[in-house]
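[step 3/7] fold_predict: job queued, chain A
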Amino acid sequence: MPVAVTWDHVHLRSPDPEATAAWLRDILGGEIVRAPGRIDVNLGGAKIFIAPLEGDNAVNPPPTHILNGFMWALWGVFDYWLATSNASTKTIFNRGVETLLHNLDRFDTGYWSLYEQSGTHLKMLASPFYHRLHIVQLRVMSELTGDARFAEVAERWEGYAQRGSNRTRALIEKSVFKLLHY
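[step 4/7] structure written:
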């Protein structure tokens, strides 16, 4: 069965968010929307969030470990292995799978999935979109690896999403997080 995946937004860091937003507006016809701490650009329905890159660092502290991004990266490594049959690439993929399995419980709150691990006091819960994406990605990981543990977590998280009280709790906690951190 084919899996339909869409994306809601993209995060960018820029040393000059104003110039980046102006370029997206002028060249691609984007609409600039100002938000606290960042500039958003609506580009034909796709949202681009542009935050300042502070100092000379490519990553602003605290560093984040984003669950869906790690799985996307693993899929890129897997695709490269399929294209090249490079043994060291397969080793990198397998180690990434081990890392994901080792840390997956850290993204499980017992009622919803976390979007990231960032070291903030409040945990950043996944939005409903990203919670569903995590479930789909975990099912794909189970298919790619043959490891049923991914499917088991996907089923558990699907159960979380089916409970109205979990959805309500996640929405409230996500809203509080955004109010305090954005």
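[step 5/7] annotate
The CA atoms of residues 11 and 72 lie 15 Å apart.
The beta strands are 9-14, 31-35, 38-43, 46-52, 65-66, 116-117.
exit 0
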